[in-house]
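Lay summary. Proteins are chains of building blocks that fold into shapes, and those shapes determine what they do. In this project we predict the shape from the chain. Here is one chain we studied, written as its sequence of building blocks.
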Amino acid sequence: MLFSVERVRAQAAEWEAELQRKWREETLRMAEEKEKSYEEHERQLLAKMEEDRKNQQLEDERMLSMKLQTMLESKLRDLCSCNTQASLDHHQALLTQLFQDLEKKIASGIYTGCQQFLNDQEEQLEKYQRAPGKGLKTHVFLEAALDVRQHPCKSLYPSKHLLV
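And here is the predicted shape, written in a compact code that computers can read:
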């Protein structure tokens, strides 16, 4: 019986040693899997962070581009407005200068007929067309100026002559 007890003890010791070896192997395998899992998780987090950083950079660039575009459009509107006002001032000064003589002649009553006025007006319009630095909207300013000025031929003659 001694033999069988020692044999059982030896077999139990082998089983215990085998269980401990399997337990160590399983623990090592689980630790390796856990390490791989952590590494994979870390890799995924780093990839996600890199993707988020790139997306944020693209968003920042898009926002900056939009802000710059808005600023440029605002500056362009300001420049166009200033240019339009300067052009308007230039055209008004030029037209006032050219038509000042006509207005003086009308006020003094020099014109005895409408044709004489129209000839003088045409001469002033030709001078206006030849004047430098008027830009592209010359016709717009000229039409506006002529619309504002009332045609003086109606005032050259008393109203009783218009009825004849």
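What the prediction tells us: The longest helix spans residues 2-108.
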